[in-house]
């Protein structure tokens, strides 16, 4: 049975077929893999010796317009398997399409869609005629391994986007242009926030420069203050552990491919070789801390937080700036609680998310509630149907009662319990996954975690895994793009820059600098022998939120002329008044947004 798509999905899916039609007209030797619609457009994967260029995309797009103008009809054809095999061979696309045909279970309907001379193995659905595609644009070419497996051949993936109207397409393309300007990799380089050295340090291992380290430190300070007020206790754990720890937790069967390879050492006692893994997650270590002392129901909930660095061997093709790295500093914590305490604790975590959303000005968010697939119990998910049902209902009830905006997604839970992925949208409308909140009903029992009840019996606590700021790498990457590098004063790497108009007032500038830094303000003074206009332009390029211009009159009166990146020219005020206002802005973590 074919799955009905939304009208926009049909436009995008049909655009992918038109793309493939055009490519085969221009490059008949190309072999096709798949071409689905996506949340923002469509793509198609091609196996072709010729490497697509920007000029090729222009030619392909022009050919697509011809196909659309021909107003070809999309015709669905259902056939038995042996006939499908022959149709694929007759069309000359057996390299990948026969493998895709094998993915269709015996007994399921096998269908093709035909438009003009083009034929594709496809479940559908599509628009009726190609002229229904009124607004599309090809965007880029990228490499993509067949079936996402790096051991397979790398294909060429052409990305495009399509909308129902030209106005919607224009708005989307404008957003993409703005996204290029806000790309965290470009801004990070321009502002000297972080760097990578793939050759000698390794890909996906960011090096935080002084200004970028300020961002990490400020986020950690924020999280520590927030969590201390919420009753969390901080812990620290090592960067590696024996293989047996991750067998006990159950992580190895699910995550070993994403972990760095084990290191083997010969232990002093007995001479046996023991394997160690660099940690990919903090939770097994936290479970050991919980288990280190006896726990009573009076001690619960126990909330353990850490900013531990974790390491995951992400595929090189998936690495992307700070958004996908191999070394990550996790804003991690684990809450051990009773079932009766679960609702209050889980809701408190969600409330913490909302507090952060308001602080950073995230106007649009969505909680993505991921549940399990009953058919995958014992394979992808822990085999305990009763606890899956129970904990999913608990999470669902909290989300409903709190009124939090959420959607439910099947078959994407963690292996040990249901989870929530936190989706946020940046100032220009780009969607990001920045945090997670998970329920663990399985692993605490594997570690023998327990507490003594009021009836003097032993029970296993529930565990809530939560990371409201996710990893600092991804969260900072998002903030760079969200603010476009124009961080509010409390977060800015450089909060104030003092610009003396001449050497005659350099001493006054130094006095101001000393006073601000003594108050904990990240201030600098530009004492270079340059014209004031050049100094101002440099401060603007460096996105410094507060610029103080001082001349002989300011030095005589003890004043400063203030330029704010967010408020414009604020005029002249006493140096002390500026400092008091600045410190309050920093203390309150005031949200400032550049218009």
Can you describe what's shown?
With 595 residues, the chain is α+β, with helices and mostly antiparallel strands. It folds into 3 domains: 7-163, Threonyl-trna Synthetase, Chain A, domain 2 (Threonyl-tRNA Synthetase, Chain A, domain 2, 2-Layer Sandwich), CATH 3.30.980.10; 194-483, 2-Layer Sandwich (BirA Bifunctional Protein, domain 2), CATH 3.30.930.10; 496-587, 3-Layer(aba) Sandwich (Rossmann fold). Helices cover 36% and strands 24% of the residues. The protein has 18 helices and 29 strands. The protein has an 8-stranded mixed β-sheet with strand order 10-14-17-24-21-20-18-19, with helices on both faces. A 5-stranded mixed β-sheet has the order 26-25-27-28-29, sandwiched between helices. The model has no long low-confidence stretch (mean pLDDT 93).
Please outline what is shown here:
This protein is of the alpha+beta class and 595 residues long. The chain has 18 helices and 29 strands. The protein folds into 3 domains: 7-163, 2-Layer Sandwich (Threonyl-tRNA Synthetase, Chain A, domain 2), CATH 3.30.980; 194-483, Bira Bifunctional Protein, Domain 2 (BirA Bifunctional Protein, domain 2); 496-587, Anticodon-binding domain (Rossmann fold, 3-Layer(aba) Sandwich).
- Count of runs of 4 or more consecutive helical residues: 18
The structure class reads: alpha+beta
As a whole number of angstroms, the C-alpha radius of gyration is 29 Å
**At CATH's second level, what is the architecture of the largest domain?**
2-Layer Sandwich
Approximate shape? globular
State the total count of DSSP E strands. 29
Q: Please tell me the total number of domains.
A: 3
**Topology-level CATH name of the largest domain:** BirA Bifunctional Protein, domain 2
Distance between the termini: 50 Å
CATH hierarchy class name of the largest domain? Alpha Beta
Q: State the fourth-level CATH superfamily of the largest domain.
A: Bira Bifunctional Protein, Domain 2
What percentage of amino acids are in beta strands? 15-25%
Low-pLDDT sequence parts? none
Oligomer: single chain
Main beta sheet, described? 8 strands, mixed
Sheet with most strands: strand arrangement = 10-14-17-24-21-20-18-19
What is the helical fraction, as a range of percent?
A: 25-40%
Give the integer mean of the pLDDT values.
Answer: 93
């Amino acid at each position: 049975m074919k799955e009905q798509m939304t009208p926009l999905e049909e436009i995008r899916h049909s655009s992918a077929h038109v793309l493939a039609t055009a490519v085969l007209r221009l490059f008949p030797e190309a072999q096709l893999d798949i071409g689905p619609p996506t949340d923002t457009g469509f793509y198609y994967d091609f196996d072709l010796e010729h490497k697509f260029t920007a000029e090729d995309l222009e030619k392909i797009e022009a050919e697509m317009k011809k196909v659309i103008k021909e107003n070809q009809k999309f015709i669905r054809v259902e056939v038995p398997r042996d006939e499908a095999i022959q149709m694929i061979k007759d069309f000359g696309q057996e390299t990948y399409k026969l493998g895709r045909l094998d993915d269709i279970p015996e007994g399921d309907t096998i269908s093709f869609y035909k438009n003009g001379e083009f034929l594709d193995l496809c479940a559908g659905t599509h628009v009726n005629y190609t002229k229904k595609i009124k607004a599309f644009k090809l965007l880029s070419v990228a490499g993509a391994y067949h079936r996402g497996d790096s051991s397979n051949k790398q294909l060429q993936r052409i990305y495009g986007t399509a909308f129902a109207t030209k106005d919607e397409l224009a708005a989307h393309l404008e957003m993409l242009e703005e996204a290029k300007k806000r790309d965290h990799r470009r801004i990070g380089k321009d502002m000297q926030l972080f760097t990578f050295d793939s050759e000698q340090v390794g890909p996906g291992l960011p090096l935080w420069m002084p200004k970028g380290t300020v961002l990490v430190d400020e986020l950690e300070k924020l999280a520590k203050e927030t969590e201390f007020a919420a009753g969390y206790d901080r812990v620290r754990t090592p960067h590696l552990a024996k293989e047996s720890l991750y067998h006990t937790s159950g992580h190895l069967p699910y995550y070993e491919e994403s972990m760095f390879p084990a290191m083997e050492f010969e232990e002093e006692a007995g001479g046996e070789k023991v394997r160690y893994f660099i940690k990919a997650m903090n939770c097994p270590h936290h479970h050991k801390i919980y288990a280190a002392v006896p726990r009573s129901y009076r001690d619960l909930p126990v909330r353990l937080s850490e900013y531990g660095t974790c390491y995951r061997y992400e595929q090189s093709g998936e690495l992307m700036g700070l958004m996908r790295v191999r070394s990550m500093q996790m804003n991690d914590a684990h809450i051990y609680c009773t079932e009766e305490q679960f609702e209050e604790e889980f809701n408190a975590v969600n409330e913490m998310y909302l507090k952060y959303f308001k602080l950073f000005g995230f106007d649009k968010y969505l909680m993505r509630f991921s549940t399990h697939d009953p058919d995958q119990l014992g394979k992808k998910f822990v085999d305990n149907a009763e606890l899956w049902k129970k904990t999913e209902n608990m999470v669902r009830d909290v989300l409903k009662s709190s009124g939090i905006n959420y959607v439910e997604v099947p078959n994407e839970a963690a292996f040990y319990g249901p989870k929530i992925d936190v989706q946020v949208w940046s100032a220009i409308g780009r969607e990001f996954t920045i945090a997670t909140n998970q329920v663990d009903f399985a692993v605490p029992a594997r570690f023998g975690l327990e507490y003594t009840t009021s009836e003097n019996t032993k029970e296993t606590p529930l565990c809530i895994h939560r990371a409201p700021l996710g990893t600092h790498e991804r969260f900072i990457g998002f903030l760079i793009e969200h603010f476009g590098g124009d961080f509010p004063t409390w977060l800015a790497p450089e909060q104030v820059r003092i610009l003396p108009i001449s050497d005659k007032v350099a001493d006054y500038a130094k006095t101001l600098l000393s006073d601000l830094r003594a108050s904990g303000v990240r201030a600098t003074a530009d004492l270079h022998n340059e014209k004031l206009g050049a100094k101002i332009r440099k401060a603007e390029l460096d996105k410094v939120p507060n610029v103080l211009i001082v001349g002989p009159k300011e030095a005589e009166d003890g004043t400063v002329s203030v330029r704010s990146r967010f408020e414009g020219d604020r005029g002249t005020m006493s140096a002390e008044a500026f400092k008091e206002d600045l410190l309050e802005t920093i203390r309150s973590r005031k949200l400032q947004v550049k218009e």
